[in-house]
């Protein structure tokens, strides 16, 4: 259910109603039974639904950069800003040790 919510509402704040109508977006995304269960569990809450695409975007930026694409081209292809492309390209993997650390 979490993946369905992320696919449908990723990157958004979502207000979960106590008693959703049949045409409510949560019901449409999850189906009647699962949608009502989520609404019952999270009634009257506002939640941020993460999109979980940052890792994939970073890899895409690195691959496209290695392929000779400019920041502007990469931003257009991925639907992000050039500033975000620059940040992703500069970000280091926290699992990777720095060989030149003092």
Structurally, the number of domains stands at 2
| SSE pattern | HEHHEHHH
Tell me, briefly, the overall form.
elongated
- Summarize the biggest pleated sheet: 2 strands, antiparallel
What is the helix tally?
6
Low-confidence runs of at least 5 consecutive residues: none
Structural class: mainly alpha
Output the strand order for the largest sheet. 1-2
Distance between the termini: 46 Å
Cα-based radius of gyration, to the nearest Å:
19 Å
Instruction: Say how many strands there are.
Output: 2
Overall average residue pLDDT: 85
Short summary of the structure?
The protein is mainly α and about 100 residues long.
What does this entry look like structurally?
By secondary structure, this protein is mainly alpha-helical. It has two domains: 2-49, no CATH class; 54-90. 53% of the residues lie in helices and 10% in strands. The chain contains six helices and two strands; from the N terminus they run H-E-H-H-E-H-H-H. It has helices spanning 2-9, 25-30, 32-41, 54-66, 71-78, 82-90, and strands at 12-16, 45-49. It is elongated and about 50 Å long. The N and C termini lie far apart (46 Å).
């Amino acid at each position: 259910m979490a993946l369905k919510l992320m696919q449908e509402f990723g990157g958004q704040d979502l207000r979960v109603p106590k008693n959703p109508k049949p045409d409510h977006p949560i019901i449409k995304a999850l189906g009647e039974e699962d949608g009502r269960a989520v609404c019952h569990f999270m009634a009257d809450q506002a939640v941020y639904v993460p999109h979980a695409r940052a890792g994939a975007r970073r890899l895409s930026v690195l691959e496209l950069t290695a392929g000779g694409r400019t920041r502007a081209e990469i931003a257009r292809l991925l639907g992000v800003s050039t500033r975000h492309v620059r940040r992703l390209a500069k970000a280091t993997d926290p699992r990777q040790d720095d060989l030149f650390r003092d």
